[in-house]
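User: Fold this; tokens only.

Assistant: Input:
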Amino acid sequence: MITTKVSLREKIGYGFGDAASSMFWKIFTFYLAIFYTDVFGIPAAAAGTMFLVTRIWDTANDPIMGIIGDRTNTRWGKFRPYLLWISFPFAIIGVLLFTTPNLDLTGKIVYAYISYTLMMMAYTAINVPYASLLGVMTANSNERTSFASYRMIFAFAGSLLVVAIFQPLVDVFGKAVPTTTAYQLTMVVIGTIVIGFFMLTFSWTRERITPPRDQKNNLKEDFKNLMANGPWFILLGAGVMTLIFNSVRDGVAIYYFKYYISDDIARESAVMLSKMTFAYSTFYLFLGQATNMIGVIMAKPVSAIIGKRRTFIFAMFIAAVLSMFFLFLTRDSLFLVFTLQALISFCAGIIFPLLWSMYADTADFSQWKTGRRATGLVFSASSMSQKLGWTLGGSITLWLLAIYGFQANEVQSAETIRGVKYMMSIIPGVAALLSGVFMIFYKLSDAKMTKIIEDLDQIRESEGEA
């Protein structure tokens, strides 16, 4: 298994799946909060509480989905079938999420709770099996890093695509229909693209690694092994802090430009392309995704020289320092705003393929240590940590907006602007710093993983001969 080579087509196919997921993820991160506050008319504090409540339930769903995936057996494998079964409901619920029924405030909040809960359940049902595929397509640690790199490259390509078309599509549709309908039609277009990407992943990937032949289903034992998996817990902490770092910066970015940089004025001098206007905020988000992608591309060559752990630590420490500079930028510091965004996003991009590759390594470590393999549980619990960080980051952003006196579609007070600047600088900077500190204690070095994989290969070979 350690010498198993996989085709470029399969790596590309795997990448399309995260392009699809990331398109929706970035829509939730960049646009959903401001849609709720400025279009749907939900108070920021109510939206923040809704994010927390619904995502706590959603976080609990991840291990459940991982357990279901581990116990699924079809001619397509354990995890691939969910890409086929869930992609259409996933896209349809995405449209419903940006649908605005004519209700009073209480009705709107109830609708938001229901539609967002359904969206997160669908996201779990398709994304946990997708993530788990990384642990069963190959046992080769270097190939896993390669798969993870392709995954992240396509993830940021999907993010680039959605940033480039989401607001321009809303603007174009908004010329013929009400703004609320424009958001809905935009999601129809994006949902169609997402379905096509998931179909390519289903068609072009294969599952090769199976649990030990004599392994019996034992949920209690699987959880016991996960709780004893020290490296996984370290990744849990690092992953949560990384997502807080990203989700706070991403979630407040539109507010930063609309209410501090004065994005409405910026539109007048923005770039025109194919009759679409790209505001400074769109360029900022696009630039971030582009440099994220460059970071992803550099993850494998850099980590091959200094190791996954050191690469992760250095990237997060640098991102923490650079984030702090946002506190001192003025409305006229656009060049520095974009420069810092590019550098910070490069650092963020370089760690994500490493993080998911290391999650796969912890699944191997658990099997090497205990003799049991529960890939779906390990990856679903990992996905749970990602959502927990995303939950905390999104809720913190909206709560702080409320605390600092945010009022939708009005000129903001100096206190509110100060809070927005804190959310672009100090808060994500501290989260990035803590993420790097967690990784100092991670002990699964590249050399140790090579030994673990060799031992597991010998076990698989002996089982094949038996």
